[in-house]
Each structure stands twice: as structure tokens, then as C-alpha cells.
Design goal:
The chain is an all-alpha fold. It is about 70% helix and about 0% strand. The chain has one domain: Rhomboid-like (Rhomboid-like fold). Strand 1 and strand 2 form a beta hairpin. The radius of gyration is 17 Å and the shape is globular. The mean pLDDT is about 95. InterPro entries: Peptidase_S54_rhomboid_dom, Rhomboid-like_sf, Rhomboid_protease_S54. Keywords: Hydrolase, Membrane, Protease, Transmembrane, Transmembrane helix. Pfam families: Rhomboid (PF01694). This is Rhomboid family intramembrane serine protease.
């Protein structure tokens, strides 16, 4: 962990903070009430801070495991490519932006809640794809790697379709808009990334 702190301090802090807060929530359900994002409340100016705190808690062990595993594979490398403060800005801003469509879509659904770091992690993955478009990427437990840029396209298509048709209680909108936010923010922070992206083909 000391090695990670040296070359990716911001990613390390976010990783530990998210793990610690999620584990805390598992043993103290009052944390969910204070940290979870409720679009109905946020759209009316209540608990606006939850656009950030909802990214620090997870529904269960599986939700936490898969999010943190994805984060681990990409975030530490991305901070090296992007820069320290730039990585922090990408993560925080994309976490907020990925929730805005959800807040608008469910502003009248008093019982709808959203939690997890999936939107920001999608941003991290797609920012990584801009830097390494030909890297091999695969879905967990399926040992077939495909180029990252193809994986990215398939991911966006799936999220768009699932947002309209899935009934699995997963916030696919956050995944989709987190990915888009990651692309846009990365280009803003690193103007040469698109040139490097196309040069690597």
C-alpha cells in the first residue's frame, strides 16, 4: 500500500475512504439514511451533499467487491497517466455529473434511492481507455480479452439499452453518464489525449 501511496496518493485515499465508509455502513444502517442519494429530496434542495456521500457507500458485499475491483484495476494506473489533482477532479466531478440525470429522471419518485461509486468508476475506466485504447479488457470470469475501445462501445450500448429496459434495480444511467463524463473531463484536462488515442491504432 505504501507503494501505491507514493505514485497514486489520491487514488489510494479514495480507495481506502470508500472501503472504510462502506464497511461502516454495513454495521451501522443509520449511515445509509444520511449518505444515500434520494432524487426526490435532492431536487427539492434537501441533502444535496448526498451526490458525493452516496458514492462512499454500497448496497452489499458483492456491490462493494465488484466496484472496488474495477477501481483497483484502473484507478492507480490512471492517476499516473492523468496526474494527481486531475485524477481527483475527474473522480469527484464525474461522481456528481453521473447522478444528475438520475436526479432529474426520478425527482418525483419519493421511494427511489441510489448509492455506490459506479458512475465515478465508469469515468475512471473510460478515461483509461482514452490513454490505452488497445489494451485488452474483459468481463470478470470470462477469459476473453477484447481491445479496450471495443469494450467501451459495447459497454455504452449495453448501459443505454439496460437503462430503458432492465428491471434489475441497477442505476444504469449513472454508469452511462459516468462514462461520458470521464471522456469529456479527460479531454478537458489533457488536450493531447485524443491525438494519442488515434495514434495508437
Amino acid at each position: 500500500m505504501i507503494e501505491y501511496l507514493q505514485y497514486a496518493p489520491v487514488a489510494s485515499i479514495i480507495f481506502v475512504l470508500t472501503l472504510a465508509t462502506s464497511l461502516w455502513a454495513f454495521s451501522n444502517h443509520n449511515i445509509y439514511g444520511n449518505f444515500i442519494l434520494n432524487p426526490y429530496n435532492v431536487s427539492r434542495g434537501h441533502k444535496v451533499y448526498t451526490v458525493l456521500t452516496s458514492g462512499l457507500i454500497h448496497k452489499d458485499w458483492n456491490h462493494l467487491f465488484f466496484n472496488m475491483l474495477s477501481y483497483y484495476f484502473f484507478a492507480f494506473q490512471l492517476e499516473v497517466y492523468l496526474g494527481h489533482w486531475q485524477f481527483g477532479a475527474l473522480y469527484i466531478v464525474s461522481l456528481i455529473l453521473s447522478d444528475l440525470p438520475t436526479i432529474r429522471k426520478h425527482k418525483n419518485d419519493i421511494w427511489y434511492n441510489s448509492l455506490g461509486a459506479s458512475g465515478a468508476i465508469s469515468a475512471v475506466i473510460f478515461s483509461f481507455i482514452l490513454f490505452q485504447p488497445t489494451a485488452g479488457m474483459s468481463i470478470l470470469f470470462i477469459p476473453i480479452a477484447i481491445p479496450a475501445w471495443i469494450f467501451g462501445i459495447l459497454y455504452l450500448v449495453y448501459c443505454h439499452f439496460a437503462s430503458k429496459h432492465a428491471r434489475d434495480n441497477i442505476n444504469h444511467d449513472a454508469h452511462f453518464f459516468g462514462a461520458i463524463s470521464g471522456i469529456i473531463i479527460t479531454v478537458i484536462l489533457n488536450h493531447n489525449v485524443l491525438n494519442e488515442f488515434f495514434r495508437k491504432f
